[in-house]
Structure of Sigma factor G inhibitor Gin:
Amino acid sequence: MPVKKSMIIRLGDTCVLCKQQMEDGIHLCEVHVCEECERKLVDVNVDDQTYPLYVEKLRQLSLERFL
Ligand SMILES: [Zn+2]
């Protein structure tokens, strides 16, 4: 039995990182990330200078949602 993705997005949601409307992606604490950005997040090297930018962006967005 295949493992189903537990994080589901709604069609028409916009990716918080690239601002593109997306048809597939993940849903992190009310923050939507498209498949492409998800892949970047997963693949990006911790030493890569874009990594802290992604993490910070996600962290800020997560905090905003909870406040
Ligand atoms: Zn994206």
Notes: Helices lie at 35-43, 50-66. Residues 25-66 form one domain.
